[in-house]
């Protein structure tokens, strides 16, 4: 058996918790995309899966994204940051489909 001192145990627990949270958030982003695809009327969404879903922090920085079309992620952070700046609502949740705020293409 390998004996670990308490510092190593704490580090392992931190890493395990971080991994659990990361996987949980990635699952949420993926489910967002699944629901979007299931409820969409557009063939671009339903068949081509031409969308991206991601979760950002309160400053608009990317936390995690779903594995849909990652090309959109380059502009998503700037979209989120401009929406946060424009609306300035504390502790708000935003859902956006705003092509004028930095989207990679129009629908």
Description:
This protein has 107 residues and is mainly α. Helix content is 50%, strand content 7%. The model has no long low-confidence stretch (mean pLDDT 81).
Question: Short description, anyone?
Answer:
50% of the residues lie in helices and 7% in strands. It is built from 3 helices and 2 strands, in the order ααββα.
Helix and strand topology:
Layout: H1 6-39, H2 43-46, E1 54-56, E2 62-65, H3 73-87
Antiparallel strand pairs: 1-2
Strand content: 5-15%
**What order do the strands of the largest sheet run in, or round the barrel if closed?**
1-2
Radius of gyration: 18 Å
In total, the number of strands is: 2
List segments where confidence is low: pLDDT < 50 over at least 5 consecutive residues.
none
What shape does the CA trace take? globular
Look at the structure and give the mean pLDDT.
Answer: 81
> What is the overall number of helices?
3
How many strands, what sense, and barrel or not for the largest sheet? 2 strands, antiparallel
Instruction: Provide the succession of SSEs.
Output: HHEEH
> How much helical structure, as a percent, in the residues?
40-55%
Instruction: Report, as a whole number of angstroms, the end-to-end distance.
Output: 59 Å
Structural class: mainly alpha
């Amino acid at each position: 058996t390998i004996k670990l001192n308490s510092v190593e145990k704490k580090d392992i627990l931190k890493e395990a918790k971080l991994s659990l949270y990361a996987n949980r958030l990635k699952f949420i982003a993926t489910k967002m995309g699944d629901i979007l695809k299931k409820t969409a009327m557009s063939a671009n969404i339903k068949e081509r899966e031409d969308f991206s879903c991601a979760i950002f922090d309160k400053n608009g920085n990317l936390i995690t994204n779903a594995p849909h079309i990652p090309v959109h992620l380059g502009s998503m952070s700037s979209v989120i940051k401009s929406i946060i700046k424009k609306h300035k609502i504390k502790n708000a949740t935003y859902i956006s489909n705003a092509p004028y705020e930095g989207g990679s293409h129009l629908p």
